[in-house]
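Continued from yesterday's entry.
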Amino acid sequence: MAAKNRRVLSVASECAPLIKTGGLADVVGALPSALEPLGWRTRILMPAYPGLLEKVGRTRRIWRHDNIFGGPASVRSGRHAGLDLLLLDAPHLFDRPGGPYVVDGHDHHDNHVRFAALSWVGAQLAINGTSDRWRPDIVHAHDWQAGLVPSYLKYAGSTIPSVLTIHNIAFQGIFGPDQLDDLQLPTWDFHPDALEYHGLVSTLKAGMIHASTVSTVSPTYAHELTTDDFGFGLQGVVSMRRDRGELKGILNGIDTEVWNPATDANITNFDAENPAAKTVNRTALLDEFELDEPSGPLAVVVTRLTHQKGVDLLLEQLPTFIEAGGAVVVLGSGDPSYEYALSELAARYPRSVGLRIGYDEPLSHRLYAGADLVLVPSRFEPCGLTQLIGLRYGAIPLVAATGGLKDTVVDATPENLSNKTATGFTFSDIDAGGLGFALGRSIDLYQDQDSWQQLRAQALHAPVDWGTSAAEYANLFTELTS
C-alpha cells in the first residue's frame, strides 16, 4: 500500500533541467515525479547558482540565516518544470563565475565549504522545518556534495532517517581536519570510525557512516564498491554497511518524457511499434556530418572524454571498426589529449568520422535517433544513462560489463538472440582487445539485417523508466520511516 502525503527532502548539487554536469542531475530531476504516485512528495534543496532564481521566476523566502560559513543566506521556494525547489541563496558561496564545481579548469578553492553549507542547511530544514510549515519525513542526500547531511543530523541528535545515494564513489569531498571547527563538525569524532579518512576528512565517508541506509545506482555497482578495484579506498565502509543489511543497489531510470522518440521535437518521430523513421534520422545524421553511407553500423559516442569512459580504448579500436565498414560520430569534451586525438582521427577518416567537441543537448537527441550503435566502453560506470537512452531510441548499446551497464544490457549471444532476450553487446575484458572483439561482433551481426532488426526491436521494448526503481525507493523510505 502506497504512503499518503509523505515528504522527502532531496539534497543535491545539481538538478536537470536547471543545471547539469552529468547523470546525477538527471536522477535528481526525474525521481520526484516517479515517487509522487507512490505517495512521496519531494522538495529538492540545491544551490542558487547564478541565473537560477531568474530562471525559476517567482519564489518566496521560507528560511534565512545571518551567517552560514562566512555570509548570510536564505532558502527560496519555487516551482520549475514540475519540480518543487528550495534554492539556497548564499551569494558568498555560489554567486561566482564558472560551473558548479570548477572555474577555468580548476576546482573552486572552497568547494568543501560551499557544499558543507548546503548539507548544513539541509539538516536545519529537516530538523526545524520551514516557515511554510513543511518538514520532511526522510532526507535523501546525493553524493559527496550532500554527504554531510546525515552527519549534521546525527550531531544534532536528530532521529530523522536519511538515505545517502552514491552516484560515483571516485569523488569523495576531501578536506583537512583544520576545517572541522569552521564547518561545525566535532573534532572529537575525528577518528577512523567516523570523520577521519587517512588523516583527512571525506564528506562521502562521513555520510556513509552516518546515513540510515546507503544506496548506489545499480546492484552490480553496489557489489563492485566492496572490492579493492572499485571501492576507491572506501570498500571497507561499504562492506560494513552491506554486512549490516544497510546497502541497496537501485537502478536508475531515465525520464521517458524527455527521452521519447515518439514526441521528441529534435528528430523525425518513431516508436517501438513503428520504428521505420529510424532510417530517416540515420540519413539525416550522416548528412549533417557529411559522412558516406557505411556498409556497417553507424555508431555514436556521447560522453565526457576521460580515461574512466574508455576513450583511449576507442581511439585504439575505431580505425579497425571504420576500415571494416563502420562509421562513428562523437559528441563530448574533456581531456585535451583525447580531443586532439579524436580530431586527428576525424581528419584521417573525414567521410567516416564526425566530431563535435563540447556538449549540445539537441544534437545528442539526433545522435541517439540516428545511430545503429551507442558505444559505452567505460572502465567503471555506477549506472550509466547513455545505454538506457540508446535502448529507448533503438541505438543498440555496446558496453563494458561493469556497474549498471552490466545490469541493463543483455548480450547478443547466440542463445540470447535465439530466445529474443538480447538487447545489445557486452564485453567483460575491459581493454582494447575486449572492445575490439565486441565491435567485430556488431559488424558481423549487422550483415544479417533480419537479426539486427530483431535485436533493435528488443532494445526498443526494454524497460528504461523509473517505475520499478521508484517503487524500490518508496519501499525503502517506508521501511525507514515506519
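--- second protein ---
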Amino acid sequence: MTLSFDPGSLALPVGHFIGGRLIPAEGVIPMQRPSDGESAGFCPLADAGIVDQAVENARAALKSSGWGAVAPRDRTRAMQAWADLIEADVAVLGRLEAVSSTRLISQVPPFDIGVTAEQIRFFAELADKECGALVPTRDASLGMIMDEPIGVIGAITPWNFPITMAGWKLGPALAAGNAVVLKPSELTPWSAIRLAELAVKAGIPAGIINIVLGDGPVTGNALTGHPGVGKVSFTGSTGAGQAIMGNVARTGIKPVTLELGGKSPQVVFADADIALAARCIAGSILFNAGQACVAGSRVLVEESVAPALADALIAHFTAVKPGKTWEEGGDFSPVISSRQIARMDGIIGAARDQGAEVLTGGAQMDRPGYYYQPTILAGVTQNSPAVTEEIFGPVLTFQTFASDDQALQMADHPTYGLCSGVYTKDLSRAVRMTRGIEAGTIWVNRYGRSRDHVLPTGGYKSSGIGKDLGREAYHANRRSKSVLIDL
C-alpha cells in the first residue's frame, strides 16, 4: 500500500467526540503544517460547557454500561478488539496522524500505530490479573485491601507523538474500569478522535472515551479543574505541568500523574563501543527532530575518545534526509512551528556568545517548512542555556570529562531527571552510574524506550510525578480501600 497522500484531500473530523459520536464544532484555533508552513485548517475550542458535557457523559456511561463492574475479562476482550482495529486502520489513522504533525508517514504505521496497539493489548491483559489482597490479621477477623476504579480520568496529551501518548492514557484507564475525557494538543487533534471512533466500533461502550478539542488555558483548565474528574494525567512541558498542579489545587484534591520535560545526559566512557554509542546518541536526538521529552540532548564523553565520537556523530547528523510528513522517503522530521525555530536560534546564539563552537548545523534548513539542521554545540559550560534548558529540537551539547566522579557530577541537572544513557563495557561502572544518576530511567549501551511495555516511565525532580506504562500505570488508575471484618 502506498502511504504517501495529498494533505489537502484529507477529510478531517472537525468537532468533539462525546457520548459515542462526533459533535461538529466550528474550528477557531489556526493550525499550520510543519512540513510546508501552509494552513492545516482550524481546531475547535471546547469551553467549560463542552467539557462539562463530556464529563457528565463519561459519568453516565460508567453507570449505564457498568464498565467498571463487568467481568474483567469482558474489558480485556473489548480492548483487544480495539487494538486489532487500530492496527488495521493504517490508511485512515496514519494519515490523520501525519497531516499536521511532525511524524513521518513512513514511521507512523510500524512505530506509532504498532506501539499504540501493543500498549492497549498490554493493559487489557492486566484487567483480570491485577487485584487486591487478603492480609494477615487476628484469627477472629478478615482483613482485605480492595481496589476499584477511580471514575472519570481527565487526560491531556502533547503534539509530538499524538497516538502513542493517547494510548498511554487510554489503555491503563480503561483496563482499570474508568471512563476518560481526553484533550489532545490543539496542534495535532485528529487521530485521537479516530481512536475513539474505533473504540466504539470494537464494543467499548459509547461515552467511556470522550475527546474534547481545544487549548490549555480554556479547555485544559476546565478539564483539570472539573469536580467530576477523579484524576488528572498529563504529558507535556514542566511549565504546563506546574500550571495543572496549581489548577487542581485551586479547585479540589485529586491524584495527578505528570510526565514532563527532560534534559537527559548520555555518558560515554573510553572503554565504550564508540560506533554503537554514536548510533544510539544520533538516533535519540534525530528521531522526530529531537522533539521528545526523553531526547538524549547532553553528551558527556571521556576526553580521550571525544574526537572519535564527535566525528562519528557529525557523519550521522549530516546524512539526514528531510521529508514532508505525508511523503515517503524522508527520515528527518520538521520541527513543530516557526516559533520553535526562533527559540532554537536564540538558545544557540546565546551559547555562541558564551564561547560555544558549532561543530555542525546551527541554522534553519533552506527549504519550505520548519526544518532545522541537526546541530552539535561543543565548548559549552554547565550554566549555558543550551545545557540548562530543554530545547526540544535536534540540538546536542558536547562536553568532556576526565574521571567517573566528574562525569557523575556533570550528568546531574538542577531541574530535570527524566532519563539517562551510559556507555561502557565495565559492568561495575555501569551499576555505579545507574545508582548515582538521578533519573527515572537509565539505559546502558542503548538509548530509548523498547517495546517492553511492562517497564514504567516517569521522572525525578521537575520531570514528573508518578508513572506511565507498566503495572504502575494500571494501579495509578485504581484506588484502594481497607476492609476489616470481625467474624
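The domain at 265-460 is CATH 3.40.309.10 (Aldehyde Dehydrogenase; Chain A, domain 2). The chain has a mean pLDDT of 96. Will compare against the first tomorrow.
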